[in-house]
Design brief:
It is built from 9 helices and 15 strands. It is globular. The strands form 3 sheets. A 7-stranded mixed β-sheet has the order 4-5-6-7-11-13-12, with helices on one face. By secondary structure, it is α/β, with parallel strands linked by helices. Helix 6 links the parallel strand 6 and strand 7.
Length: 465
């Protein structure tokens, strides 16, 4: 059963389709000019994780986006990384496996330089095509959106700054220019969908958006998007940059200090939720070690290899599921410690296409032993790469209530329940457990593992034990 089916009706956001003939923006915040709670006391965020597709975006992905926004009327949509399948053959002339990799081989002649420049321009056009296809339903419905990046976006040959610049060409994109700090304004010379929206900028894909109360007397919470990195030179996945981690630590206090004097009672940090691509290692605290032969046992990833886990039902919400090891960076960047000390109440990550669970663990800030951080893992929202069965590809809705704004309710909006039977060819849904997932990334996500590959993978797993 799904999270939606399992969840108690009293704890589930209520969703309803848009009213026919109402041509106002679906986003209430778009109607009001900035992100804020409504008269109903609610505020909604819709997350799409790991769409990970090439220029020819799957029709089913677009259907999921359309159906999700129509059903939920979100104030804001967040794309949490890996929108672009940078390894897609369409980018073959410019693709980079790693950020530090040299550009595709060629001679040093002027003609070669010109060919590469032309290939980059073609890649820009293809990325623009992909982004345009994904956000067209949002523009048509009047819904603002924001984006951060994962470990595959840059592989198309464009760095995140250039991809973000392309995103900002489209209506509704809230990613701020680097010089923007807290002030609202136009973006790229065009009127913003939210003309009164303040933002704090750090780097491409790393910034913060403020959400105010219904009367705009004070800001209630912050939504932080974090570029969580891509790959480590030592192997495995990378971590947020030092600048991004400093921003993560400092921005709650900066946002609190900007509140009106009468709204600054208390701790001195504005409570925030962070959206990013990679999960942190502390997600493993929501899992329970079991024997390799246990039902539904999943082997951990890299540093957790050789150990098997299932979801800890005492720590996770009903309807959660674990379909692959949590693929976190090897090195602990200190991010979770920052979340605890800086007053964050939730983190939502994607990356692991076959995981969908919600739980909470102790914040570990040393000040309040009872304070916990909500930990959310979301499955892929796309149909262009591996994942669960097509019907379980999903968007994730968060609903914040002004009466308890730091305890958001969440549910998955699965394709099978929201749309029905997928129309496209069957996407890859093979088992992405540790037995089919290599120790180091760089796998071909468009390639099904062969019978012989599965045997070798199992032998490798036995050796690691």
């Amino acid at each position: 059963m799904t999270e939606m089916q399992h969840a108690d009706k009293a704890t589930r956001p209520r969703i309803q389709p848009a009213e026919e003939g109402d041509d106002r923006p679906l986003s209430v915040s778009a109607r009001l000019g900035r992100l804020q709670f409504h008269q109903s006391g609610k505020f909604r965020v819709l997350q799409f994780a790991d769409i990970q597709d090439g220029p020819d975006v799957s029709k089913d992905t677009v259907k999921l986006i359309e159906a999700s926004v129509d059903a939920t009327r979100p104030d804001l949509v967040i794309f949490s990384g890996n929108q672009i399948a940078g390894y897609d053959p369409a980018y073959a002339q410019t693709t980079r496996k790693r950020r530090w990799s040299a550009r595709p081989a060629g001679d040093a002649s002027k003609a070669s330089e010109e060919r590469y420049a032309a290939a980059l321009e073609r890649t820009r056009g293809l990325v623009r095509q992909t982004i345009g296809r994904l956000v067209q339903p949002l523009a048509e419905h009047g819904i603002p959106w924001a984006v951060t990046f994962g470990n595959h976006d840059f592989q198309c040959g464009l760095d995140n700054a250039e991809i973000e610049g392309i995103c900002r060409e489209f209506p509704g994109c809230l990613n701020p220019a680097r010089e923007e700090t807290a002030d609202a304004g136009t973006r790229d010379g065009r009127e913003a969908m939210l003309p009164d929206q303040p933002a704090y900028a750090c780097a491409p894909g790393t910034f913060a958006l403020l959400v105010s109360d219904v009367d705009r007397t004070h800001d209630v919470l912050g939504l932080v998007l974090l570029d969580s990195g891509d790959y480590a030179r030592s192997g495995g996945y990378g971590s947020p940059s030092a600048a991004a981690l400093r921003f993560l630590a400092d921005v709650p206090e900066r946002m609190w200090a900007a509140r009106p004097q009468e709204g600054r009672d208390g701790a001195g940090k504005l409570p925030c939720m962070v959206f990013q691509h990679f999960p942190v290692a502390q997600y493993y605290q929501l899992l329970k070690p079991v024997a390799a032969t246990a039902a539904r046992a999943i082997e951990g990833y890299r540093d957790f290899a050789g150990r098997h886990f299932v979801l800890d039902e005492d720590k996770t919400q009903p309807g959660s599921y674990l379909g692959e090891g949590v693929s976190c960076p090897d090195a602990d960047s200190g991010e979770f410690a920052i979340l605890g000390k800086s007053g964050y109440f939730a983190i939502s990550a994607g990356h692991d296409h076959r995981n969908a669970f919600v739980g909470s663990i102790a914040a570990g800030d040393g000040e309040d032993e009872d304070r916990r951080i909500m930990m959310v893992a979301s499955p892929t929202s796309g149909f262009g790469s591996y994942g669960p069965v097509p019907e379980k590809r999903a968007a994730r809705l968060f609903e914040f209530d002004i009466r308890h704004p730091y305890e958001p309710r969440t549910q998955l909006l699965e394709y099978g329940e929201l749309v029905g039977k997928p129309s496209a060819g069957r996407p890859y849904a093979y088992g992405m457990t540790s037995e089919s997932k290599p120790d180091a990334e760089g796998m071909d996500l468009l390639h099904r593992p062969t019978w012989w590959g599965k045997v070798l993978g199992r032998l490798a797993a036995l050796v690691r034990r």
